[in-house]
Structure formats: structure tokens, C-alpha cells
Amino acid sequence: MVQTRSASGNAHAVPETELAVLEFQNKIVVIVTQVNKIGGQLLSLVREDNLKLDTSPLSGEVRRPSFSAHTLLGNRDDSVAHIIAMHIMDWFCGRNPNESRPLLLSLSLATGKGRQSLQVRPAESIRPVEENDGDDKFESLKEALGLITSLLVSAYSK
Length: 158
Known about the structure:
two-stranded antiparallel sheet, 43% strand
């Protein structure tokens, strides 16, 4: 049986974003779109052989998995898509520490004329590169990731 969940919303500088989650027995499929289309396809895997030891004064030692992301269809150099795929995988593993199913992500973000596209920079805050003075803008990747996280939380709270 496939469990299906969905949510949509927007943030100050992030266009209307729709999210759908289909949970299969062997895979999690997440569709994120701002243009009502299926986009590039990425596969994100939990790398159990490479557990990170996370130590904090409050929680002690906790083993956290690391993730890898591979482009199946689309721009292989799109580091923003890889960051989003690993962020979503991290969210699922945070929700269920035993999660080991691969994530298949379809990502279709608004870009092009009248919009802005994200450019990854080594700085902590990632700012958009202006293409035009359109209304649909990303102020930062951090805000987009925050919106995706809140859509996941919303989808799972229904």
C-alpha cells in the first residue's frame, strides 16, 4: 500500500511551492514543484557505512547517517538540487532514525525570464543571481529549505 501526502505554500521570497510524498515499501518519492511540472530526478541514499558521530553536551553521542545524492535526469552540476535532496533525506532520517529507504526526488523550481535562479557560493548565506526584476524570487537557499521543511511537517501533520 502506498501512503500519499501533500502540502503547498509559499514564503516571503519563495514562489508557491507544491510538495507531494509517496511512500512505497522500498522507496520514498518526493515531488517538489513551483511550475506544476515534473522536474529533474535525483536519487538520495543513506550511507550507513559512513555514520557521523555527532556529539553535543545535551544529547551525548549520537550516530547520524550521511547522505549522497545522484542526478538521474537533469543538470548534473545543479548543486542546489543536491543540497535539497540531502536536506529532505535528513528530514526523513530525523523523523525515523531507522529510515534506510532511498529517496527519489523530482525537483522543478521556478527559473527563467522574470525570475531568479540560485547560485551556490561558498559563503554561509546563499543569495540569488538576478536575471530580471520579477516578483518570484529566492532570497536564499536557507529560506527555500525552510519552506520545504514546513511543507513536509504540514504534510505529515494531516
